[in-house]
Structures are given as C-alpha cells and as structure tokens.
Amino acid sequence: MHRILAKQTLSPNVTRLDVHAPRIAQIRQAGQFVIVHLSENAERIPLTVADSNSETGTITLVIQAVGKSTNELVALNVGDFIRDVAGPLGHPTEMIERGHALCIGGGVGTAVVHPIAQGLKQRGVQVTSVIGGRSKEWVIFEKELERYGKVVVCTDDGSYGRKGFVTDAAREILAAGKVEIVYAVGPVPMMRAVANLTRGLGVRTIVSLNPVMIDGTGMCGGCRVSLGSETKFACVDGPEFDGHLVNFDELQDRLSTYREFEQRSIACANGTCRMEKAAAANA
Amino acid sequence: MQITRQAMPEQDAAARAANFLEVNLGLPERLALLEADRCLQCKDPRCMNGCPVGVNIPKFLDLLTAGKLAEAAQSLLCDNALPAVTGRVCPQETQCEAVCVRAGKGMPVGVGYLERYVADWARENRDQLPQVKPQPTGKKVAIVGSGPAGLTAAGELAKRGHDVTIYEALHKAGGVLIYGIPEFRLPKKIVAQEVQRLEAAGVKIECNVIIGRTYTIPELQEKFDAIFIANGAGLPVFMNVPGENFKGVYSANEYLTRINLMAAYDFPRSDTPVLNGQRVAVVGGGNVAMDAVRTAKRLGAKEAMIVYRRTHDELPARAEEVHHAEQEGIQFEFLTAPIEVIGNDKRWVTGMKCQKMKLGEPDSSGRRRPEVIPGSEFILDCDVVVVAIGTKANPLLTATCPDLKLNKWGNIVADENGATSIPGVFAGGDIVRGAATVILAMGDGKKSAQAMDNYLAELPKSVSLCAAV
C-alpha cells in the first residue's frame, strides 16, 4: 500500500501526486516508469516517474485523467492509498555527457521531460526546454524546468508565451545553434512533427512512448511498436526510442483500440450507461 | 474388481461454452473409491517414475481405498505441494497414466481424477491434517516468481525450516496459474487457497517486485543465503508476418492476462477491456492455444477456431483439453499456416491469409514436418487473432546479473538439481526449460529445494549477513 503524501492540480485534467514508494524513489532514473494499480478491478496504468525524493521516499506521478481508472486515481486525496506500485520499469534515458540538449514537452508529456532535463543538467549538459499546451492553463512544469536552463513556452491560442506549436520554437532554436540531441515527449502528433523536423536536420531525437500496456515486464506484448522493420516492446526495449525510426501512425492507431470501451467504462461509472440501467431494472 | 474406468462428471458442453465455471465437476465419493480400487498396487509401480514430482501414487490410492482420507491427503501433500492444481492441469496421459499397468489392458487408473479428489478433500478439511512446525534453521531464501516452480520450492523449503520470501512481479501471486490458465480449468479460488496455505506455513510473498528492476540478483545475494529463480518464460513470440500489429491481434499472454488476471470478461465492472471477437482465430496447438480458443467461445464468439500447421495427432495440448474443445464446438483448421494478417482501411483485423500444408518426413523432434502446398493460399475470415506459438526468455533479470550463464536462447543454464553458474543461485521452470508444463516446473522446484537445502546445510550456522535486514 502506498500513501499519497501530496496532491496538486496542475491543469484542468492533469494532477500531480506524490506517492510513498521508498525503494523506487531511491533507485529510479530518468525515463523509467511504474505500473500503478488502484484496486482489485482497476486497470494497471503505466506512468513515467516525473521526480522523486529519496529523503521522503516519494515519487512524483503526473496523471492525465482520460479513462475510468485514471479518473479514480486523481480523485484520491492526501492520506489515501494506492494498492500497487511496481517498478521502476523500462530503460533509463540515454543521456549525452556534454553539449546542448533540446527538451520538448507537450501537455502532460512535459512531466516526462522533467527528469530528463534534470539528469542532463546534473551531467553538465546545457538544456533548453520548449514546452507547450492548448492554452495557458494547460502548461505545466515551467517553474521546475527553469531550474535546468532556458524555457520557451508555447500555447496554441497565444494565451501564454508565444503563439504556435512547439515545433515552431524548436525549429528556430535548432537553426540558431548547435544542438546535439532532442528529447521529445507529448501527444503522438507532436512527437511525429518533431521527429520529421529533426530528421531533415540530422539531429538525433529520442521520444518516450506510452502505448497500451498490461504488465510492463515484457509478458503481454501489447505495447509493441514498429521501429523500421523491427517490432519492439516499449516496456522492456523502451519506453524511449529513436524518434526517426518509430512508426507513429501505427502507434496512434493502436492507442485507439479501446476508445469505445473507454467511453462505455466512463459512462457506466457516471451512471449514464443505458445497458447497466437496463440490467439493474431487470434485477 | 471392476474394469471400467470411471468417467469424470462434467458440465454440459453447450452450457459451459457460455460460462467460466469449471468444466470438470470432480468424482463423487462412491466413484472415487471404485476408481481407487482399480489400482493393482504393483510391486514395482511404474506410475511413480512417470511423475515429475515422484508422487507415491499406490500409497495414497491404497489409503484412499481404505477410507483413510486424512492419511491419503497427508501422503499426497508430502510428495506434491500443489495437488489440487496438478490434479486438474497435469498431462497425466503422457506421465503416470501412460505407464500404468492397466493402460495395457484397457484404461489406466484415473490418477489425475483421484489426486484431485484427495486434494479437494484436503482443502475442505484442513483442520484434520496435522500441522507440523519445523525447527527454524535461520537460513534465508529468496524465490523469484510465484508460479508453479516458485510455489513448490517455497513449500519444500519452508517445510525444512528455512525463512522464505517470494518476489512476484505482478500484483497477485500464482504466476501462470493466475494470469494464464482460465477459471474453467483451474478456479482462481484454488490457487488463492494454495498461496494462503504457504503463507500460513510462514512463507512471505512480496508482490510488485520485479527482480532485474526493483532489485537485482546481486542485491538479493547480499540479503539471502540462497536464491531460486523461477520467473517464467517471459516474452511472447509472434509470427513475424505482415499485419501483425493491426488492432485485434493479441499474444495469448495478453489475451489471457486481460481475461484471467484483469477480469476483462466482467467489463465494465472491471476496468480492463478485451475485444470480443465474433470470429476468433487462435494460432497454435498447445494448451495455451486451447485455453485461448475456449475462452473466446465463452466470451461470445460465434466461431472460435484453432489454426494449426500440423494435424489433430500432432497437437501438443492435453488430450482432455482437445476433447473438451471439440465438445464445445471449437473449429479446427488443421494443416494451415498464416502468412499475413489482413486488415481494413481502419487497420482492424478482417482475416488471415493462410497456406495449406501437408505432412512430410519426420524432423529432428520426430514429428512429421509440415510442408507448404504451393498455390494453396486462401483467406480465413476473422476479427480477432490470438498468437499462441510460444514464448522466449525474458531478459529483465538476466541482463542485470552478468555472472549468470545463459544458453543461446537466453534461458538460464542449470544442472539437473537447478544449480546455476553462481553458487547458491538455483533456477527452474520455464526460464530454464523454455515453455513447458506446470508439473515439470513443479518438479524443478522440488529438486532445486532439495539441492538448496543441502547447500544451506553446508553453510556455517550464523552466516546470515542479513540477520538485521
């Protein structure tokens, strides 16, 4: 059982939880994730560890509430418990040791970029971050990332920072000076756009993928992604991959597999599912 | 002495194809006693040699025939840590029953049925069995994985007074008995009871710990006197054909884990979904393939079919599973090999392009090799594909333990007692064998436990560096 020690709403459906998990807090590295399982009937949810504190024994999880299980997770309060937290899973981020790195985060993906920027800074790498959201209220982790270097904020509607996509800002930074490596984490279309941009420039680009996953230890193969002609499992081979090789179309398509089920699950949880009502009436 | 073997009562085939309740209902007392009496009590019982864990079969059958159930149960449990499990899932027809003297003169004694009978009695009558508390040895043992090999080794080591901790990667103990084998073949309640029995005997189980990630084997070596690695077969093998990443293609591991461990059959009361195919094609012919195809039928598939490149006679699954599948209306597409998964413009599976095969000369395994019939390609319509063609070694643990010797497939190299290249570290089950059976894994657990006990006995008494941990 893992107690929640702090909770903060970061944007309309993005919540930060600091969860007691001392062993993971002690050994986790940038890029690694945990599997969170709230209760007997809940889904197992993979979440990248955004930060940790080995003194308090906590890990920071940033959750976008999209399905029933993630909604239940963000409904928890300080003092509540999460039944299962397993990890740390996946390979740590491949870091450069010197030079200039560009870290690009979109929406909730910005939280995944945070430990990467943190690790790079610790190694003495120059970090520039470009982070974005639909509008001001969707921009997260700006303050935290400022500790590691310059941060450029972009919003789709121009309500905060510069107006436009993160790729626009990234293009200018890449044009202005030498960048050894780009790390990009966010919605699939964003990562695809960044990869397309940097491919032409020949700049190595690492993306962090979050496909459908059950166990997180290589057993189910649900998280398979195509890298060129090869199939990889995001949980054991990743979750970070060479963005120039990832088949983003397939990734996005596979992520849509259970969309209908997710809507039904939420409808049932809200008591608006007609099937459930009919079943109750017949009971 | 009557000759005919008693039939196992089972749920009606049409009814059970629509529910997840256990297929076999168990012999009633009268039939169990009649069946036990068929054992000829051979002077040199071959059945025992046919058993990977060496159950003294004539002894427990003799006690059963005499109506001494508590003693029969005690004898059985002494030899076999999980008899309620093996009585249900062992391939008896290739082991104990295959070498039964009666097999030559009609039907062998129903050893599996009777093992189940006695084990189920023991589950219901725990209070009638003596509880022996062994003298603690002060030695600490870690077991990686709570599947059949790990549970068996844990039971054997706890019985000898060692302090046992099992580390399980998933959130529930039982390994393949929980995530793999479906409820209709092995009710989860039975696995839970066996796990509770071990915990009552002092075994500690820590779930959500992934050895190779949360801790490494070298880290465990600092805290424990001996280690048994039984983390299973790991990664699913895919067909490596075009279209395999379309929506609707599952590994058998994923399909069964969604349904068994995550209770997807109960969606939306349970949060994990599974695609309910109307035409489900399961590729493969082993027990896992049978479990998957019969599960698909129970989830409402109009057609649930096995696609296998050899014929009925080569199916590696237990005979009873094949028989039950046939009764339940499972279709078999024999001599058929998929070469491509076909999808629609939205990338949902709509079928598989297959080739017809014929059997040629026997290969190195002694089975006749399937050969392609040129020009025989056809499309098999289906909306869900489940790939059940095997698994390969998971690298998570071994990659973080460089001193552990592996074979070319990544399986751990261990001798007949489970000893690995590292002193004090033993291994068994699928991580050593590649994909095998529950009972072979249990056999490994039992042998390794004995070898570990011998190893621990030779250690100085107060070696535990970890007494304070």
Give the topology.
The complex is a heterodimer of chains A (283) and B (469).
Chain A: E1 2-11, E2 14-20, H1 22-27, E3 33-37, E4 44-53, E5 58-64, H2 68-74, E6 81-82, E7 84-89, E8 100-106, H3 109-123, E9 126-133, H4 142-146, E10 149-155, E11 162-163, H5 166-176, E12 181-185, H6 188-201, E13 204-208, E14 224-227, E15 230-233, H7 234-237, E16 240-242, H8 248-255, H9 259-269, H10 274-282
Parallel strand pairs in A: 8-9, 8-12, 9-10, 10-11, 12-13
Antiparallel strand pairs in A: 1-2, 1-6, 2-5, 3-4, 3-7, 4-5, 13-16, 14-15
Helix pairs in contact in A: 5-6
Chain B: H1 13-16, H2 29-36, H3 46-49, H4 57-65, H5 69-79, H6 83-89, H7 101-104, H8 111-124, E1 140-144, H9 148-159, E2 163-167, H10 176-179, H11 188-200, E3 204-206, H12 217-223, E4 226-229, E5 235-236, E6 249-251, H13 252-260, E7 279-283, H14 287-298, E8 303-307, H15 319-327, E9 331-333, E10 336-343, E11 349-362, E12 368-372, E13 378-381, E14 384-387, E15 391-392, H16 395-398, E16 425-427, H17 430-433, H18 438-457
Parallel strand pairs in B: 1-2, 1-4, 2-3, 4-16, 6-14, 7-8, 7-14, 8-9
Antiparallel strand pairs in B: 5-15, 10-11, 11-12, 11-13
Helix pairs in contact in B: 2-8, 4-5, 5-8, 6-8, 9-18, 13-14
Task: Give structural notes.
The complex is a heterodimer of chains A (283) and B (469). Chain A is an alpha/beta fold and 283 residues long. Chain A has 2 domains: 2-89, Beta Barrel (Elongation Factor Tu (Ef-tu), domain 3), CATH 2.40.30; 100-255, Rossmann fold, CATH 3.40.50. In chain A, 32% of the residues lie in helices and 33% in strands. In chain A, a hairpin with a 2-residue loop joins strand 14 and strand 15. The longest helix of chain A has 15 residues, at 109-123. Chain B is an alpha/beta fold. Chain B has 3 domains: 13-128, Alpha-helical ferredoxin (Fumarate Reductase Iron-sulfur Protein, Chain B, domain 2, Orthogonal Bundle); 140-234 and 393-457, 3-Layer(bba) Sandwich (FAD/NAD(P)-binding domain), CATH 3.50.50.60; 238-391, FAD/NAD(P)-binding domain (3-Layer(bba) Sandwich). Chain B is built from 18 helices and 16 strands. In chain B, helix 2 (29-36) packs across helix 8.
